[in-house]
Design a protein that fits this description.
The structure is a homodimer of 436-residue chains. The first copy, chain A, has helices at residues 18-25, 49-53, 66-69, 119-124, 131-149, 154-161, 170-190, 216-228, 321-339, 375-388, 392-408, and strands spanning 10-14, 33-38, 42-44, 63-65, 76-80, 83-87, 92-95, 98-101, 104-107, 111-113, 162-166, 200-204, 232-234, 239-242, 246-249, 254-256, 259-262, 266-268, 279-280, 284-287, 299-301, 306-308, 354-359, 362-366, 371-373. With 436 residues, chain A is of the alpha/beta class. The first copy, chain A, has 2 domains: 10-39 and 81-113 and 267-339, FAD/NAD(P)-binding domain, CATH 3.50.50; 119-264 and 360-430, FAD/NAD(P)-binding domain (3-Layer(bba) Sandwich), CATH 3.50.50. In chain A, the strands form 8 sheets. In chain A, strands 5-2-1-9-21 form a 5-stranded parallel beta sheet, with no helix packed on it. In chain A, strands 13-12-11-17 form a 4-stranded parallel beta sheet. In chain A, helix 1 packs parallel to helix 9 (321-339) and helix 5 (131-149) runs antiparallel to helix 6 (154-161). The N and C termini of chain A lie far apart (53 Å). The A-B interface holds A 40-42, 58-60, 63-65, 67-68, 71-72, 77, 79-80, 97-98, 131-132, 135, 142-143, 146, 149-150, 189-191, 193, 393, 396-397, 400-401, 404, 410, 413-418 and B 40-42, 58-60, 63-65, 67-68, 71-72, 77, 79-80, 97-98, 131-132, 135, 142-143, 146, 149-150, 189-191, 193, 393, 396-397, 400-401, 404, 410, 413-418.
Chain lengths: 436, 436
């Protein structure tokens, strides 16, 4: 069992994402002892994962080792561990490195891909929520281009060269834009034997428009940008089935493809032991205005997995980085108030706006007072993402990569370091059959 | 079957290392059709692999995609493939992507780790000859430091904190220096709970000195540098056995360790079908002075796997990058001479000297007329390696990393992107028992 070596109350933070890091940073030099657990030893800058998946950036430029972030913070410790169960009465958690006691527990586990129960789609399509997943996706894309080279006819090449991205949120829009750029600017250089017209990129969205969360102007312009780049945007249609070779849409349309990327939904990563009636739609954990889990005394949750339900926010806040960061900071202050016997302050979200990029010179930005699209939006998007990256080194490396890509139209290394091997289906009886 | 689409004679090059690349580049615009095969889609700059293994550099800064090197070279094609057999009479090769015919075949497969038949050592120790191997090694090192944190006593921490590098050639010297720097400069920052004195680095060499291939001054100074940095250099002693927990030396000394890195030897990567009597010591392929494989008409070999045996070089040339590069260039010229019905020219190696680095400000350089060690040697080593890297981007990224490390004493990201999982020994009966 991990023992605390101070007399201060012990805060255990599960997860080193935006929220967990912000919380732990703001507990520096406070009368609390912080233990952070994460299954990885690094923080992932998720907004740029799609550039890792499409070979524009390397993993290390958007990942930062958690230990290094807290160099010199004396009340902070970190362990690589997964948490398997919470015991609220005993005030301990079961983990892969043993049982750990806590005085305050903070669940900052974030979200994972939601396939809405479709096991076949889950089995055959690619998610992109972590660095290993993004690297798998990259290997798959590049391996399928290599495979296309070996096929003797257009018909046989088709499934290797059709790319279908499901979900028209920011991730789906950014991914389909990046794959379209691969097609438009890279394909003829790296694979001169392949014909650009044989490679197709589809974006499938169930709602009437892409970027539903943004302004109507942003949605319309993003769709226009995508179409300019050659992406086939299919709105108002859901995915019915995917068997690894062909995707079937609800309107009956089929596309022959080995490349389906699923960015159509997320769900909270809940840990066993959280009170069952605190878990709401989308697998999020309901909290009060202090981010305290409903039905508990000293368990808190922040970020994507948390739903702060109040009169003003009946559905909680959107699952985006600024919410996690603001909740982490606020909770740190509240925990300090708690140990000082002061009253906690309720969480208030300050929404700075949102943005998404489609490709070179093409982005959409919604701020409070300003909405703009195109080149200046693209510069804004790059600037905001650059300054948000942790560490000077990452900022410099990403900046150099972007500058290089801008001038060469041929950025990124596109290395297949580890081959992606799709899990063989020796016996697919455990998968439900396609519906008729 | 891969068909050639020109009437020019077809050169198939197996391997995209230093030799294969140089050969293919020098065949640009020549009346030959080049097909390069490699199991990876990138070239590896092997001299800096040890910095990837120890977390100082990321894989992408020393890897470069082969397709990009040959952008625009019209007589060049590349395929990811492994070659399983050569049929010299039919003039075809069997590969993982089918049978491929050739007019000229060039074997540039390089070398792999040589465990000298010790299956137990091979099973339990880590090689470092490729990027996936270097990344595995990095994950293992970092995971064992994490594991040490969880152990309650010094005795239980010991095997996780003892590092044994076997083989005192340039790779072994550079690796032990880099791990010693991790201990001296990083450990107290990333793992303040661990005591530096509990981490030990051993370098084991069977010969009386390290860097046997270099001058006596270089060997002596390298050993002095290593000792200054706290490395325990054990010379004149071979490894007898390693069972994954304890390494036993020929003199009876044992060291409790989960970290054994094997850099004690290499052997050529020979492909089935090469005439048996051309294969000599160290699994190298004997050639004449034109790099033509003994007993064949149109099969050539260059680089680490080749042994150009003449009166002047009865054992062939050393397995280093400059030899491969010079052989690649010379063979390209000779193949052009062949198709023009001109006589080939024999290969002559121009030895520019050799160098190795031990750590910050500590390197040894042997040139023709000059031998020097220390700070200026270290600058020379960095300069030569920087300019040898392929692509401007890689030069810039490595340079920034080195500058950053120099000033911060805390370079590199040390990410565990993919966990290293040691193959479980469910049944180790297939491994020979330790000798008594």
């Amino acid at each position: 069992m991990e023992k605390s070596r101070s007399k201060f109350p012990k805060v255990v933070v599960i997860g080193g994402g935006f929220g967990g890091i912000e919380l732990a940073k703001h507990l520096k030099d406070k009368p609390l002892d912080v233990l952070m657990l994460d299954k990885h030893n690094y923080h992932t800058f998720q907004p740029l994962l799609y550039q890792v998946a499409t070979g524009g950036l390397e993993a290390d430029s958007i990942a930062f080792p958690l230990r290094k972030i807290f160099d010199g913070q004396k009340n902070f410790r970190f362990r690589i561990a997964e948490v398997t169960k919470i015991h609220p009465i005993k005030q301990t958690i079961d983990t892969t490195i043993g049982e750990i006691p806590y005085d305050y527990l903070v669940i900052a586990t974030g979200s994972t891909t939601n396939f809405f129960g479709n096991k076949r789609v889950e089995h055959f399509s690619m998610p992109m929520k972590s660095i290993p997943e993004a690297l798998n996706l990259r290997s798959m894309i590049l391996q399928n281009l290599e495979e296309a080279l070996l096929q003797p006819s257009r018909e046989l090449r088709e499934p290797y060269l059709n790319f279908v991205i499901v979900g028209g949120g920011p991730t789906g829009v950014e991914l389909s834009g990046a794959i379209a750029e691969l097609r438009n600017h890279i394909l003829h250089k790296d694979y001169p034997e392949l014909n650009k017209d044989e490679m197709q990129v589809y974006l499938v969205e169930g709602l009437p428009k892409v970027l539903q969360v943004m302004s109507p102007q942003a949605s319309a312009k993003a769709e226009e940008f995508l179409k300019d780049m050659g992406v086939k945007v299919l709105t108002n249609v859901n995915v019915k089935d995917y068997d690894g070779k062909q995707i079937t849409l609800a309107n009956g349309k089929t596309i022959s493809t080995h490349n389906v990327i699923w960015s159509a939904g997320v769900q909270g990563q809940v840990i066993e032991g959280v009170p069952k009636d605190s878990i709401i739609r989308g697998n999020r954990i309901q909290t009060d205005e202090f981010n305290r889990v409903k039905g508990t005394e000293n368990i808190y949750t922040i970020g994507d997995v948390a739903a702060v339900i109040t009169g003003e926010t009946p559905k909680g806040h959107p699952g985006v980085a600024p919410v996690a960061i603001q909740q982490g900071k606020q909770l740190a202050k509240n925990l300090v108030r708690l140990v000082n016997n002061e009253p906690m302050q309720p969480f208030k979200y300050f929404d700075k706006g949102s943005m998404a990029t489609v490709g070179r010179n093409k982005a959409v930005v919604d701020l409070h007072k300003f909405r703009f699209q195109g080149f200046f939006a693209w510069l804004t998007w790059m600037f905001v993402h650059l300054i948000s990256l942790i560490s000077f080194r990452n900022k410099v490396v990403v900046f150099i990569n972007w500058i290089g890509s801008y001038f060469s139209y041929n950025g990124g290394a596109r290395l297949i370091i580890r081959k992606f091997i799709r899990e063989e289906i020796v016996n697919d009886e455990h998968l439900p059959k396609a519906e008729d």
